Structure prediction request, 1033 residues.
Amino acid sequence: MREFRYERAADPAAAVALLAAEPEGAFLGGGTNLVDLMKLGVATPDVLVDVRRLTSAEITDLPDGGLRIGAAVPNADLAADRRVRERFPVLSQALLAGASGQLRNRATTGGNLLQRTRCPYFTDVTTPCNKRAPGSGCSALEGVHRNHAILGPTLEGPGTCVATHPSDMAVALAALDASVRVLGADGERVVPMSGLHRLPGDDPSRDTTLRHGELITAIDLPALGMPSRYRKVRDRASFAFALVSVAAAVRVVDGVVDDVRLALGGVAHRPWRATVAEEALRGRPATEESFAAAAGAELAAAVPLRDNAFKVPLARNLVVRTLLQLTEDPR
Amino acid sequence: MTTMDRLVGAGVARIDGPAKVRGTAPYAYEQDPGEPICHVAVVQSTVNRGRISRLDPSRAEAMPGVLAVLTPANAPRLGHGLASDLPVLQSLDVHYQGQIVAVVVAETSEIARAAVGAVAVEYSAQGPDVVLSAERPDLYAPDKLMAGFETDSVIGDVDGALASAAVTVDATYSTPTQHNNPIEMHTSMARWDGDRLTMWDANQGPHTIVNDLVAAFELERDQVRVISPYVGGAFGSKAFTHPNQIVAAMAARVVGRTVVFELSRQQMFSLVGHRTPTIQRVRLGADADGRLTAISHEVVEHTSRINEFAEQTATPTRVLYAAPHRRTTHRLARLDVPPPTIMRAPGETPGMFALESAMDELAHQLGLDPVELRIRNEPARDPERDLPWSSRNLVACLRTGAERFGWAGRDLAPGVRADGRWLIGTGVAAATYPTRRRRAECRITGHGDGRWTVEIDGSDIGTGAWTALTQVAADALGVGLDAVELRIGDSALPFAGGAGGSTGMTSWGSAIVLTARDVRRELDEKHGGVLPPRGIVVKGGVPGESPHASDWSMHAFGAHFVEVRVDRDTGEVRLPRATSVYAAGTIVNARTARSQFLGGFSMGVSMALHEESVADARLGHYVNHDLAGYHIATNADIGELDVHWLEEDDPYVNELGMKGIGEIGITGAAAAVANAYWHATGLRVRDLPITPDKYFRELGAG
Prediction:
């Protein structure tokens, strides 16, 4: 762990200005991921700007029935909020499916979105990794990759990367059409969740479309108005990253799918909004056959590796079962 | 001795509990040597096999706060005759990835860790050879197995009996590399006063560590003291000396100050051992009634280039069931891996997974209840040593367990029970572990005021030995718990072997009982049965194995019954309940014993469903080298566990009839889980752990 400076700023704009002048600096939220990466030598910021007390730790109602979540809201508080549990159960369930009680107390909403992949080669500085050391190669492609991506990876060239995004919360937010409020040197902008996280493309070192020094200040959830659910499959019953997870919401009118939201976790470099499946389902009968066909259509794009092909039937089954549970037993 | 049995057997609360809960029980890292402590961090090889071609410590040496950088070029020379990985920094050769190639000593741990990154090292290396297979041409038969067992055993005509058997099973099972991972990482704090070395250390037996420090630094025994009152788990990884003790002592000697070396969690995967992976072919032959005619158990496992650790994997097969024709073999491959070591019932744990899975497969072929199959093959005598059992109550464990679990009326067919999307199954397996005793010495001091001090270099690695030994001593002396002050965990105390092989209580407890008898005899003969005002001191102990050990076969037994649920959509496995019944002789402390049984079984569940150190065949390292990647069962993975033990009076094993309970809980547990998984799904996963990907693989869908 190399030495670094620790800074606090008076307000968010000052924090943004401070980091803009520090190309090797980073914002510090709960530190539950960044500090680990610093200990491992994966992250080597020379300045940490603590933003935990700068952004809001409040959850406020929006006029349309949605919610605004301050970036500093702890994951535990967000999961426990009555409005979240009643209107967006998928989000509360996703949060509670992640990490541990201690980590959820510490981790922030903004930081959760920006956590980095847990690919074991990314977190080990002795191994090649295009995300950590661009151009060094992807160790996972031919190595240990049972829990790596099946959708949207880069399988050749200097951008090769088969890592997955680790966040459960982000999968729920993707399904909920959340938008992320971001403060930069040029002022505030709003980034839709669908535009926040990237596929590896030719530059897997970048997880998101945020520019250096931009600070997440809040997340807006538009009203949902349909039952929703999160289901996560992992190697043990608690405290493990997803093999595959699904965030789903569906409204059925007269036996027909009126609206649906689907996002998958554990399958791609970003939370995977299953737009192909959603399109295939709208206006179709809410039956197991429709759900299976839609899941199959989405997963037709899957490019499994040597040891992670099981994620294809697992994701298919998970989509079908979760939609069935939502339509048969909506809560 | 009218008070005998007053305390032994009672569920006395841990006497070390309050101090541990308050954080005042000093573990190795928390000891206060009375001066500022320097910190060690180590540079580890990134190649598996080769030689250091360049090593430049100059940038690290120049960092403020760095006191020394030790390398093969400047490290003190160590004495000869050290085991395997202990000659740290004595050569430029590299034998495994993670081998220590340089040691930084600094004022703080942060500086030491930063300086590690400033040491430049280059290697000339060969590609790693880390993949075990049963087809390797370099497999060889070791001279002996761990703990002195014979490499092979052959009785009768196994192949002929298999060829003529009415029913046979021929299946290959495998278990992966596993790492012990106690909560407390290995920690050694070393301080030299002139030529005398004091080490506060996390280990399973201080005397063991002293032996290696004496050899490494060419000292006399009275120049070294190892102090280890509290140890935060070990599971075998702290049984032997590892590089951490050598490095701490070497660094302290060079800088002339107290030095502490605490491993990182990642270093637990390279510096302190692991369990070998195993590939086990089991063949069973039986007549139509399910009576075994032949048992063959052939084991392939690995060891390192620099040590020979031959895990005694098939040895439980020599004990468990009757069969006239029988064979067990062990073959090793030397790979470019760190030295394997003892882990959680070495031998029995992987071996029982294979044997007890095969018995389940045989029961299915016979259409026979797997409990009944085991009962039909109960041997009247030890089937390979041809000795009577000192006591053996496996059948009683099976019957009692079946009753407690509700086994009666179980449907034999697999894959036919469901609750919603959950497939439900139940499974059974036996448990067994040998009973041994080792040399142990003891000193008991009676003080004039009626208090007693009992001293023995026993070791409490979290097991409850502090409490159980105090109970044994109080009963043996005929006094209350409060009258006994126990001293353990210090090489300055009378000699005892370490906590391993489930021999702690059988050895230390016996030594205390026999020494207390000497105390009472001396009181009767010299002092009229009354403790004299000036007190007395009596030394005693046990020389080693029970005098009956060569005439009787001594083992503990048990049986596990498990319910498993498997999600038919996802392959997720849940274990809502289990019953384990043991016959393990005298149980000294009902409370801490129950905890050990619970912990052992939970480790078995963890082995069945989670634990696997995954090696990268090209890069040569264990990829998932932290507790985020190396999964251990969480509380949420363990359902309701019903633990029970039978009264068992064994007059042959030792003075108190104890069999040792530290390890039997894990043996057979993984097989019980795997058998229940098969019963739930109809899928037989023979390669642990049983993770969701294997569910889809067995379905042919992924």
Notes: The mean pLDDT of chain A is 97. The two ends of chain A are 47 Å apart (CA to CA). Chain A touches chain B through 38 residues (CB under 8 Å).
